[in-house]
Amino acid sequence: MARSVLIVDDEPNIVISLEFLVRQAGYESRIARDGDAALAAVAERLPDLILLDVMMPKRDGYDVCQTIRANPAWAGVRIIMLTARGREIDREKGFALGVDDYVTKPFSTREVVELIKHYLEPAP
Amino acid sequence: MSDRSWIALIFAGLGLAGSVAPAAVALWTGEPLGWAEKVSGVIIAGLFAMAWSWVDHLLLGPSARLAADIQDWLTGSAQERPLGDVGLHSLGALPDVVGHLCDAARIERQGLRQAARTASDRAQEQRAWLDVALRDLAECVVVCDLDHRVLFHNRAAERLLAGVASGFGLGALVPRASLDHALDCLKARLSTFGKDGEGLVGTTVFACPSRSGRQLLHGQMSLVLGPRRVITGYVAVFRDMSENWADLDPRDAVRQALTRDLRGPLGSLYAAAQMLTDYPDMAAADRSKFVGVVAEESVRMSNRLEAMAAGSSRSAPEAWPMADIHFSEVYASIAATLEHRLDIKLTMVGVPLWLHGDSHSLMEAFLALFAALHAHTGSSVFDMECMLGDRRVYMDINWKGDPVADHRLTHWLDAEINTALGPQRVRDVLDRHDSEPWSLSKRGGFAALRVPLPLARRAQFTDAEWTGLGSPSSLTEADIRAELLVRANVGAFAGRKLDHMAFLAVAVVTPLGAAQAGDRRRITALGAVRIEDGRLLTARSFERKVAADAEGSADGKPPLAVVLPQFWAFADDAVLAFHGIGSALGLLEDREGQGIHPLVVDTMMISSLLDPIEPDHSLEETARRLGIRVGDHRTEIGKALITAEILIRQIDRLKESGIHDFGQLMDTVRGRLARAEALVES
């Protein structure tokens, strides 16, 4: 069964690219448009990796990450944070709340794919 | 009737009695009154008259003239001339002595008047120089006393602060709260750094509106210290930064665009362009979607850039007024306000550090966060801790309980607060400090709200502060071991967990060589800081300089007999921690002399237990090994703080080694001491 990636972003134009990339890389993709939808999607079926935007309506990416990390049943999921907040302190906060990696927008699509592969297909 | 009249009457009475006495004798003896009796009566009367004349002219008259002259001199009418001549007299050296006395006093008075005139002239001259020097200064300079009464101002002050020339106090011209806060910060800094840190007090800056509300002022304040470092007033320098303030909004918008708003559309655009480049053979439907994305995001970016360009036409030459702040200043303001407003008990833990920011608006932001935390957690007890990172200082607010969800924190950051410049959001204040707070779990069931803040421009600790930290012992190692062995007691604390005990880290300063000379009781300073449940309670500290003699000293240092009871009351039932027991023996013997045996740990001894192969267990090296930055070690309280930090880290390492309670620690210490003794004897 293909490994699954949950794309969480309220920007439809970025979702188009990410979904295309994930599918091209051979992974199953699911989409969530805000924080609440992301947590519902995780509860429904645990993805292997989440591409998580920070600034979203209702519940932001930090809050989603904090909630996921507080639940031991969801401990195995990898989280890559995508954010338009370019400050170093935002990155530091992300790591403090439990993200595995951090990508600042604009990002290289190739780098994102490589990062996804890095976490989903660790070297033997 | 005057004294002179009384004396004249007495003489007259005596003369009359003397003149009739021969006749009275003749009558009493029954003999006839002859010429001899008559003549002798006249002679006696004449003698009394002559005696009166002598007393009157040579004693009473000169005395009266002398008294009148002195009276004139005292009332000021004749201070500039010598006393008058009393004429012929029989007062001996008295007029001359009094004359010399008055001459000396006159010369002294003339000297004083001259000195006062000179001082006044010099003050006028300095004022004139100051006036000339400050006349063309664009900044307004105001010198005030502690009640904000204006003692001096330059011309720029009259232009910027309308009313200053009319005698209004500064508190009536700018918000008094801003002045009080800046003054409190400087006072706290002076108190923190004490006598040795005068150079560190420096200035503090703040922003506030003018009373008219038409201008935004950038203020800078420094203290005026009188003799014995008593604060007598302050100098405030103000600049109009209204135009800069107007520029801040567009500049904030540019910053937000660069860090946030533009990155979204740019990310979409960049990704779509890469898709089109990297996948030339993609299906037409997919290609059409990406072309649409490129067109749409280009328009979004273009619109955003136009808006930015319109808003940032003016330059923003200066940043928001910020200054290096010592954490203890912020803590003092927040703790006092929280206790007053919300009955919240705030404790400072850890070693206070320097940070860079706008003190007043930070204080308001923290107060808002505390109020929200208090309402959310129900807790009225918080710790505030300052931690040093590579590029930031982290201010942690700690409480017993769970971390705060980020969405709740986001809501708190949107709360409006009243700063000196009017209402702003907590987020705006923190954004200005490039800060983004978050909540996290800590060990022991604690949670924290972490607020990163910019590092101070000044160095936290100077290199000079690393020197001279050694703990030279004036006793031999065998002496130390013997002293420690005697004091390796556990009392009723045998089963107490080390990380749940109260310790008092103590630094005792003695004159060099005093202990070697057998004088252990010569203590020149005492510093102590309390540790409870593994937390360094910086605010609960004890610091006293001790006078050399039993009466105290002229500069206000109390004698040891006064300090020691205060110290033991402060120590209460805490276990005392020293780094090297040698310098503390006099202190301990004082208590033991009262039949009380305090429990003691020696961090130097513990260091040798934990790192037996290390050759150096001095305070400096032990601190370095444990990763402790050494701050102000020059004061006794600085040394006590370092000792406390060492002990806290040592407790963690002892636990890792299986030593969890006080009894285990003392057993281990005794074993180590006994082995050392055995080695020496063999």
TrEMBL record, chain A:
An example of a Gene Ontology BP annotation on this entry?
phosphorelay signal transduction system
- State the superkingdom: Bacteria
Gene Ontology molecular function terms on file: DNA binding
Name the InterPro entries on file: Bact_response_regulator, CheY-like_superfamily, Sig_transdc_resp-reg_receiver
PANTHER family, per database record? RESPONSE REGULATORY DOMAIN-CONTAINING PROTEIN, STRESS RESPONSE REGULATOR PROTEIN 1
Q: Which residues form the Response regulatory domain?
A: 4-120
Pfam hit, one: Response_reg
Protein name from the UniProt record: Two-component system response regulator
Question: Which residues does this entry mark as bearing 4-aspartylphosphate?
Answer: D53
Keyword Hydrolase recorded = no
Q: Which UniProt keywords apply?
A: DNA-binding, Phosphoprotein, Transcription, Transcription regulation, Two-component regulatory system
Task: State the SUPFAM superfamilies in the record.
Answer: CheY-like (SSF52172)
Automatic annotation (TrEMBL), chain B:
Domain of life the protein comes from:
Bacteria
Give an example GO molecular function: nucleic acid binding
InterPro entries from the entry?
PAS-like_dom_sf (IPR035965), RNaseH-like_sf (IPR012337), RNaseH_sf (IPR036397)
* SUPFAM superfamilies given in the database record: PYP-like sensor domain (PAS domain) (SSF55785), Ribonuclease H-like (SSF53098)
Name used for this protein in its record: PAS domain-containing protein
Source organism per UniProt: Paramagnetospirillum kuznetsovii
